[in-house]
Automatic annotation (TrEMBL):
Species whose genome carries this gene: Arthrobacter cupressi
Protein name listed in UniProt: Uncharacterized protein
Region described as Disordered: 176-240
Stored InterPro entries: TPR-like_helical_dom_sf (IPR011990), TPR_rpt (IPR019734)
SUPFAM superfamilies named among the record's database cross-references: TPR-like
Highest rank taxon of the organism: Bacteria
Sequence ranges of Basic and acidic residues compositional bias: 176-188, 198-226
Length: 240
């Protein structure tokens, strides 16, 4: 009997060992399936956006949110695109802002383009009915562009691989023109602005922020021109 119990005990321990050694294999298999599924989901999201298919894009975003624990910002980015396709730019703004907080700098440039455009659309929706609110949105969008790192504008850089720098610059010029338009109307919104000190103070802060952004862009251009003038043999340290 003791021999039988010994054999059974040995078999039981071997079975337990086999179960425990199977667990890492199962985890690896699950992780592999998960990683392999991300590329098709990303492609599906891109195709849905290209086709203007908001429901399909939202579904792909939801699956990315479940599966992509490594880069969760991509789900928020795709979700923002889906909202934008539906014309819900308030929800799109929220999703893009969430995505931007978790994205690396190179991917953040593309997110900034869509975030700035979504905020611009919110301003456009109020352009003819509430000039104060419209201008506040335009200045918010300009602040997003102002905060873009230099990599978003660098030729050949990862953050500018699809022309993000050009799109940000064009959006900035367009937004400044719209801001100036509302600032120079003198207009039907004048009484409303005069009667709302809080709104006027907010606009003044945003306008000052935009002036600082213009000065920083000017200094950045001067630095770039200086570095280019040194030639390939200059080897100067970056001053920032």
């Amino acid at each position: 009997m003791s021999a039988v119990r010994q054999v059974r005990g040995t078999a039981g321990r071997r079975k337990r060992r086999l179960l425990w050694t199977a667990l890492p294999a199962a985890v690896v298999l699950a992780a592999s399936v998960k990683l392999l599924s991300l590329a098709p989901l990303g492609a599906a999201a891109e195709d849905a956006f290209g086709d203007g298919n908001a429901p399909a894009l939202a579904a792909a975003a939801d699956w990315l949110g479940i599966l992509n624990l490594v880069e969760p910002y991509k789900a928020d980015f795709a979700r923002g695109d889906a909202y934008a396709l539906r014309g819900d730019f308030e929800a799109a703004r929220t999703s893009f802002e969430t995505a931007l907080r978790g994205a690396p700098e190179s991917d953040g440039c593309r997110i900034r383009v869509n975030l700035a455009l979504s905020i611009e659309k919110l301003g456009d929706a109020r352009r003819n009915t509430d000039g104060v609110a419209a201008k506040a949105f335009y200045l918010d969008a300009l602040a997003v562009i102002k905060a873009a790192p230099p990599g978003c504008f660098a030729a050949g850089g990862r953050g500018n691989a699809d022309g993000e720098g050009k799109r940000l610059s064009e959006a900035g010029e367009r937004l400044r023109a719209k801001t100036d338009e509302h600032g120079s109307k003198g207009n039907d919104d004048g009484d409303e602005q005069a009667g709302d000190p809080a709104a006027r103070e907010q606009l003044e802060r945003l306008e000052e922020s935009e002036r600082q952004a213009q000065e920083e862009r000017r200094q950045s251009r001067e630095r770039s021109e200086y570095l280019q003038d040194t030639g390939p043999g200059g080897q100067v340290e970056r001053p920032w």
